[in-house]
Amino acid sequence: MIGSFIVLFAIFTFLGFYGSRWRRGDMGQLNEWALAGRRLGATLAFFLVGADLYTAYTFVAVPSGVYAAGALYAFAIPYVAITFGVALAFAPRLWKISKEKGYITGSDFVKDRFESRTLSILLAIVGIVALLPYIALQIVGMQTVLASMLVGIANNTVVEEVALIIAFIILAAFTFTSGLRGATLTAVFKDILIWLTVIVVIAAALSEIGGFSHVFTPSLSAKYFALSSPQLPAYMSLVLGSAMALYLYPHAVNGILSAESAHKLRLSTSFLSIYGIGLGLLALFGVLVYAVPGALAMVKSFGSGLYVVPALILNTLPPWLAGVALLGIFVGGLVPAAIMAIAQANLLTRNIVKEFRPNMTPQGETRLAKWASAAFKFIALAFVFVISSTYAIQLQLLGGILILQLFPSLFIGLYTRWFKKEALIVGLLGGIFSGVYLVLLANHFGKLITSVYPTAVGSIYIAILSLGINLLLTIVLSAVIPRRAKAEEVPVPPTKVSTQ
User: Fold this and answer.
1) Which of 427, 417, 338 has its CA nearest to residue 380?
2) Residue spans per domain, the chain
3) pLDDT tier at 124 (50, 70, 90 boundaries)?
4) How far apart are CA 419 and CA 436, in angstroms?
5) pLDDT tens for each residue of 198-236
6) Confidence bin at 488 (pLDDT 50/70/90)
7) SS in 3 state form for the chain?
8) Quick check: 180 and 34 in contact, CB under 8 A?
């Protein structure tokens, strides 16, 4: 098992470094390093964005949520169906404007659209902060793989930490040299392994237990069959909020802007809904585990539902194939971590540092982005080592709430200039502070365990409530703040003509 894992990881590493030689470009230009020269066709954009959005954390969190809470966590399936509709309204339009203006980030667009450096900087800060726990959670997913593989090995915790550090050194090295090109090639490799894993494990598990009739039995808790009435508002708001938020994340924007054309981006986005099928199958793992005694015992021994998928893999597949499947999940954390760190580096360089050092050369800009990308990876790694994985998972709830506050400026702003920049700034801050406060209130200022808040109509995802506050402030203030006349529109007083 460990042998096949290492061999495939070596192939993954080769592809990452080979990216610097694939479709050569001037890697001293940020456009080439961070966006692969905007030359990814429909197929490559499909794999890149798919790898970008379907991560190691997805592969362990969705089955874990279903295992623990039942049908409520199946919200991930309809949300995927909706989010690509949002993407088709958002991505091609942003791509066209960004291609024409040379934008690298969503904050670049917002700065020009609303003529506000302050708003651009705020969006960049929110994006960077929201992605830190997101990268950390990829590492949590990778940790579950290593912990599952290393059971019974002496000092397995030390071996696990050393393995993670080595993996991240390799990731930082090939991202530094290859940028998004390396991430794209490894994304194709990762997605092939993931699809293989999902299909083979489902088939093997069902073959072992004799079909779904032995899974959905009367002894299974009712929570796996249907939602209770009080859960419906939470379920629907989680679907809506998650669908609206996904493509606002900086790494999603990064994937969008790397496409070769708006048509190819639209085509690749249309086919991304195929991943929804895979996600639906993954969700079933949270129920399948109850029908495989060895896997269920393993999950209980670890004391965490995060081990549902590794446990099923290890208890249904032969060792060599289990190594292949576990490697798929492991690199399913490394690939998005690379893209997320690139997106963070772009925001830091373009929309924060460059605002205060406007004379930075293109080469200096790219050099800073490369080093920042490496730094963000290791900050996230340290984040996981310092705090418990449970707390890291709960911080991601805040990440989703924060990122949805970009919706008025980054999404609605594509279609209208009516919003005032001052109103957008106040709305953004109002949405962020209200979201954080409601999360603390919902959790009674203690451990973060929920992201929904009780209302008169039921519990609602806090991201939706805080976005409502954001939009209310933005719309009201945009209506009352007088619009400033542009310089060329200022009326010139008539020249006084002498009568003498």
Assistant:
1) 338
2) 2-388
3) very high
4) 24
5) 888 888 888 877 777 777 777 777 777 778 888 888 889
6) very low
7) CHHHHHHHHHHHHHHHHHCCCCCCCCCCCHHHHHHHHHCECHHHHHHHHHHHHCCHHHHHHHHHHHHHHHHHHHHHHHHHHHHHHHHHHHHHHHHHHHHHHCCCCHHHHHHHHHCCHHHHHHHHHHHHHHHHHHHHHHHHHHHHHHHHHCCCCCCHHHHHHHHHHHHHHHHHHHHHHHHHHHHHHHHHHHHHHHHHHHHHHHHHHHHHHCCHHHCCCCCCCHHHCCCCHHHHHHHHHHHHHHHHHHHHCHHHHHHHHCECCHHHHHHHHHHCCHHHHHHHHHHHHHHHHHHCHHHHHHHHHHCCHHHHHHHHHHHHCCHHHHHHHHHHHHHHHHHHHHHHHHHHHHHHHHHHHHHHCCCCCHHHHHHHHHHHHHHHHHHHHHHHHHCCHHHHHHHHHHHHHHHHHHHHHHHHHHCCCCCCHHHHHHHHHHHHHHHHHHHHHHCCCCCCCCCEEEECCEEEEHHHHHHHHHHHHHHHHHHHCCCCCCHHHCCCCCCCCCCC
8) yes
* Alpha-carbon span 219 to 235, nearest angstrom: 24
Rounded to an integer, what distance in angstroms lies between the CA atom of residue 412 and that of residue 483?
A: 19
Q: Going by C-beta distance under 8 Å and a sequence separation of 6 or more, which residues neighbour residue 390?
A: none
Tokens standing for residue 67: 């295992």
Could you read off the pLDDT of 402-461 as tens digits, one per residue? 999 999 999 999 999 999 999 999 999 999 999 999 999 988 888 777 888 998 888 899
Sequence-distant (≥ 6) Cβ neighbours of residue 280 within 8 angstroms: 77
Query: 452 φ, ψ to 5°?
Result: -115, 155
* Among the listed residues 135, 175, 131, the one whose alpha carbon sits nearest the alpha carbon of residue 19: 175
Residue with tokens 């599952």: 148
CA distance 108 to 102: 9
d(CA 370, CA 349): 10
Residue 465: closest CA among 242, 239, 237, 245: 237
- Token couple for 50: 């798919």
CA max distance for the chain:
108
Pairing of strands 452-455, 458-461: antiparallel
- 2-388 adopts what CATH topology? Sodium/glucose cotransporter (1.20.1730)
Q: Distance between CA 271 and CA 255 in Å, rounded?
A: 15
